[in-house]
Amino acid sequence: MNKRQRQTLQIIFEKPERPDISWNDIEVLFISLGSEVTEGKGSRVRVALNEVRAVFHRPHPERVASKGAVKSVRRFLTESGVKP
Description:
This protein has one domain (about 5-80): Metal Transport, Frataxin, Chain A (2-Layer Sandwich), CATH 3.30.920. The protein is globular, with a radius of gyration of 12 Å. A three-stranded antiparallel beta sheet has the order 1-2-3, covered by helices on one side. The mean pLDDT is about 95. It has about 80 residues and is an alpha+beta fold. The protein has helices at about 5-10, 25-30, 65-80; strands at about 35-40, 45-50, 50-55.
């Protein structure tokens, strides 16, 4: 994991949630952690890490994750055993 991915991980675990995290940075973080990321129908993204699976919706037309999406990503990472 490089410096930018570590920073993204730190930001995801900040409270209150930030509404300015790039979704692309989150997907790159998933991949760097060894997640299996696959495309679903429409804007869905399926992620599997350490036998934990989740489905997220890629934001559009903006490219940043909402606060709710950040909470979901944090919950997924925590359940997968990932912490900053």
